[in-house]
Amino acid sequence: MSAAKLASVSPSIQICRIMRPDDANIVGNVHGGTILKMIEEAGCIIGTRHCNSQPGDRCVAALARVERTDFLHPMFIGEVAHVSAEITYTSKHSVEVQVNVLAENILTGAKKVTNKATLWYVPFSLQDVDKIVDVPPMEYSRPEHEDEGKKRYEAQKLERLETKERNGEVMTSVPLPDRHMKEAYTVGFSQSSLIHLVGPSDCTLLGFVHGGVTMKLMDEVAGIVAARHCKTNIVTASVDAINFHRKIKKGCVITVSGRMTFTSNKSMEIEVFVDSDPLVEAEKGKYRAVTAFFTFISLDKDNRPLAIPPLKLEGEEEQKRFEEGKTRYLQNKAKRLADKERHQ
């Protein structure tokens, strides 16, 4: 089959692996970050494969954005995760990949859909890591599929620009001795940070961090914030759009910081930032690389939802973030109800 023919086909792949104890928390729930990393791996494979399906610069597809992702059902140790990915839209410089995750109980044969995600990738040349190469166009089974994809592309592009306006804010971590001085259920009490030195195993062929590695670290920090607030078993319920503003290079030190922004009766929203500090090229300065909102729920020993302790607010800035979080919560709730009615 010719390269031109390959570029016209909407490709798909599937990867699978069994969930092991180091993929899960202490009660056996697979970490949301583990699932997000598998989703990104599948997206990166199919995106890179498609972008190299025609003559020209060899390239690697870099993650630019993940749309809102809901965790529909929990996954447990011993289950097999089936991750399927398909390219659904291409623009001149980006690829949209839709991913579905299925959990299989290999003892009973029972299967359940745990996640559906949409990811956007941008291909960078292996010869010049700052050069974005052209994406081979794909053929669509129906013209309306291309029109719908273009609308999604324009919407995510606009939202990425809006998110960049928040990109300058730098969060300061709360030292451990001060935490004992903070009142329980306040933002400062649960606020947490994680520091990670980026090594070769974290990176793509270009020497930049895999998006899945970053998302896993973000989920870990968000989980620590949620656990400190509730002091119970907590699991990822959803992730709002994750925007990758700038690449993170091998050798950088990244600080992943999370803080509680909103609580409802059964859920809590955590804002997570990733700041990168290039040690070797210190003159470039520290910069904000990734931002996202994670939503967690609290579970009892039978995996039933528990009530969330209300967040105690201190100051106008925390009140403002709480109201913004409440707006997102109500919008997402209305969208879920609308989707449910549409599928009935």
UniProtKB/TrEMBL annotation:
Gene Ontology terms for molecular function: carboxylic ester hydrolase activity; long-chain fatty acyl-CoA hydrolase activity
One of the GO BP terms on file: acyl-CoA metabolic process
Active site: 25, 219
An example Gene Ontology CC term for this record: cytosol
Gene3D superfamilies: Hotdog Thioesterase
Every HotDog ACOT-type domain range: 9-127, 188-302
Protein EC: 3.1.2.2
Any Pfam family the entry gives: 4HBT
Organism superkingdom: Eukaryota
Principal subcellular localisation of the protein: cytoplasm
Cell location: Cytoplasm
Sorted UniProt keywords: Cytoplasm, Hydrolase, Lipid metabolism, Repeat, Serine esterase
Protein name: palmitoyl-CoA hydrolase
Species in which this protein is naturally found: Denticeps clupeoides
Lineage per the UniProt record: Eukaryota, Metazoa, Chordata, Craniata, Vertebrata
